[in-house]
Amino acid sequence: MSISKTIIICLMCIAMNAVAQSKVALSINVEKQIGSNVWQVSYQLPKFTQTLDFSHLPPHFLTNHFALKGKAVVKDDSTIQLTNLNDILMLEVSDGFDVSELRFNAPFINFSNNGAFYADYFVPHSLKVAGELITRDALSVTFNITTKIKNEQNQRTRTINNVSSLNLAQFVTLTSPSNVSNHGVSFVIEPNLPNEFKVQLEQNSAKFMNYFSQQFNSPLNRDVTFLINANSNAPYIGFLGSALSNQVMFEISGQDAVQHPSKYQRTIYLTLAHEALHLWNAHFWQPSDGTPIWLYEGSADFFAYRAMVHSGLMPQSHFEYFLQQQQKECLEGVKQTALSHLESTPSIGASYPCGRVFFEMLANALNKNGFELWLEIMNVSEGRNYSVEDVYVFIERAELSDSLKHALQDILFNNKKAHDALKSIISAQSKH
Q1: Which of 160, 279, 327, 392 is spaced 20 to 30 A from 45 at the CA atom?
Q2: What does UniProt give as the signal peptide span (predicted)?
Q3: Concatenated DSSP letters for 273-325?
Q4: pLDDT in tens, 99-128
């Protein structure tokens, strides 16, 4: 007979303050059986709750992933309605996260011995109780997370208190992250990856973090967790990453990649460096609404390649080779469209290489270190939010010839002249 182990984790998701006694209690119970990809979720609601509003979720997320149990219905794409004013709502959150939704965060990450769920998706935006609207900031939310693991006898309890509503935008792991370093970096890594690779992965990820922190002279001043998963059942070789304000998520897909990740070392570490950089260029500094992809994704590639060389993971010759390849990709991408208009065209994929190419050109033209260049552009923005207009103003103020300024600005905005302007600068700089 197998022995089940239950781990209860209590998360107080909204900090108690002077008005805590006036807040409405909401208890969310999450249950996960290790080895299964189905999560059972139940809500202990205030009496006379009528509806739960989830309008903050991605489109169609509620209908695609929340399977209701009991007397409740999905009223529309964002609202769950209780049909008998019950104070308990139960649902299952299924696997099957559609690839088209990958620009959003997955609802959960399944490790073979652990798991993590994205807290923000499970806390309602608001409740309607006895005709009264209760918003999220008026709720006192508790997560009770039960993890059942077979064949283990000991019971462990992890409690995290005073997690404000801002901290809901993160993945909560079922067990505490391991291997916390002196630099505030910790890891949750799929145990089925080779041990030697896991050690190297931790060391190199920490190198990236230290390098970016030193070069930007802007420590994050918060702990960062790397969540590294592996999916050997995927019928393809793939490497997907994303970043939140205090977490980097990365998944290795495909049996060969999971069993022999060192064969794919360059792609793995380049992606990790790119995502780690987003802790700075997407969270420490934030792109304004409408900022084109090339600016924040391309700049992440621009710095990721530098981190690879600095960490000894890429020789300078490869750095130059890949830049030349990306120049060709970018020239193809801007044949009929300016750089800042790419994402509204089939050439959207050129945004990444074009972003790196543009920053390389600008750094070369000004003879500046890449990090120094970025900080000067951020000074133009006079705050933590930046935009492509800040890049335009920076170029206008820079000590460059008028012809070079106009060429750079044409690359950014002039659909008819972008290609020729880019080709001209690449050719001129390659001769020096």
Answers
A1: 160
A2: 1-20
A3: HHHHHHIIIIIISEEPTT--HHHHHHHHHHHHHHHHHHTTSS-HHHHHHHHHH
A4: 333 456 778 888 887 888 888 888 999 999
Any long-range contacts for 92-96 (C-beta under 8 Å, 24+ apart)?
92/38, 92/39, 92/40, 92/41, 92/66, 92/67, 93/38, 93/39, 93/41, 93/65, 93/66, 93/67, 93/117, 94/37, 94/38, 94/65, 94/67, 95/37, 95/38, 96/64, 96/65
- Of the pLDDT bands very low, low, confident and very high (cuts 50, 70, 90), residue 165 is low
- pTM, full prediction: 0.86
Q: Quick check: 211 and 307 in contact, CB under 8 A?
A: yes
DSSP lists the bridge partners of residue 252 as 230, 239
> What residue segments make up the domains of the chain, in order of their start?
4-173, 185-284, 314-430
Residue with tokens 């990649």: 257
Instruction: Say if CB 115 and CB 40 are below 8 A apart.
Output: no
3-state secondary structure of 95: coil
Compare 160 and 326 and report the one with higher pLDDT: 326
What pLDDT sits at residue 382? 76
2-41 per-position pLDDT tens digit: 444 443 333 333 323 333 347 888 888 888 877 777 788 8
Q: What DSSP line would sit under 339-376, residue for residue? A: GGGGGGSGGGGGHHHHHHHHHHHHHHHHT--HHHHHHH
95, amino acid identity: D
Q: What contacts 382, CB < 8 A, 6 or more positions away?
A: none
Q: Is the pLDDT of residue 175 over 80?
A: no
139 touches 127 (CB < 8 A): yes
Q: Which amino acid is at 262?
A: S
In sequence order, which residues have a C-beta less than 8 Å from that of residue 149 and are 6 or more positions away?
4, 5, 7, 34, 113
Residue 180 has pLDDT above 70, yes or no: no
